[in-house]
Amino acid sequence: MRDDVRYETADGIATITIDRPEVYNAFRRETILELNEALREAAADDGVYVVVLTGAEGGFCAGADVTEMPDWSEELTEEEYAGYLWAVQNVVRQLRGMEKPSIAAVGGPAVGAGCDFALACDLRVVGPDAFLREGFVRVGLVPGDGGAWLLPRLIGEAKATEYLLTGTDITPADAVDLGLAVAIADDPVERARELADELLELPALAVRRTNALIDPEQSFEEYCERAIAYQWECVTDAEHAEAIAAFGEDREPNFDRDDA
């Protein structure tokens, strides 16, 4: 039983919702543990093909809940703090490492680590009242959860440096203009599920392996080696055969799946 995170599956989509709307879905330690657990569950579930990450009541995640933060320097050792931060980073690590596509449905503030959770997803949909903010410097901290690594790779170093050093907001319009978000939607979760449905109509192994190949850190030769292995997996996959047959017969493919 989870108190801070809701995990729901339907029609091949796992929806993970940070459920602390009274604090704009800001997280505490329990939230982080539950988020990590939910992501592990989604990754291991063969009936899940796409993951949607969002926040309760149309929001997303306002970062750490400052009302429940201890006095770090007084109450924790450096090693204990490192363990806590590693767990927060592991949410980003899991989202980045999961081959199943993930979509962030950002309806409200995505601040600090909450911003990084959104950046770690493969796709983002934002609501008209949403914003993303790497606001660490404003409270005397560094982007410890991945933001200074993720944002330059998504929007370029120069613009990312502006947002990281000033802590200013990325508005919905800016997010779309920068290619950070795929759309602005009145209901980001509904739009995210529409995107998920589009992905569900495609051969699942090909989607997962393509997602894994999108890695700016690898060399071209590393890419080619991985692509050979992945392509062979796809060539021998039943959904590839069905997709080819459906194309030749001018019909929609019928993939035999057990929905979550």
From TrEMBL:
InterPro entries the record matches: ClpP/crotonase-like_dom_sf (IPR029045), Enoyl-CoA_hydra/iso (IPR001753)
Alphabetical list of Pfam families matching this protein: ECH_1
Origin superkingdom: Archaea
PANTHER family: EG:BACN32G11.4 PROTEIN (PTHR43459:SF1), ENOYL-COA HYDRATASE (PTHR43459)
Protein name: Enoyl-CoA hydratase/carnithine racemase
Organism expressing this protein natively: Natrinema salaciae
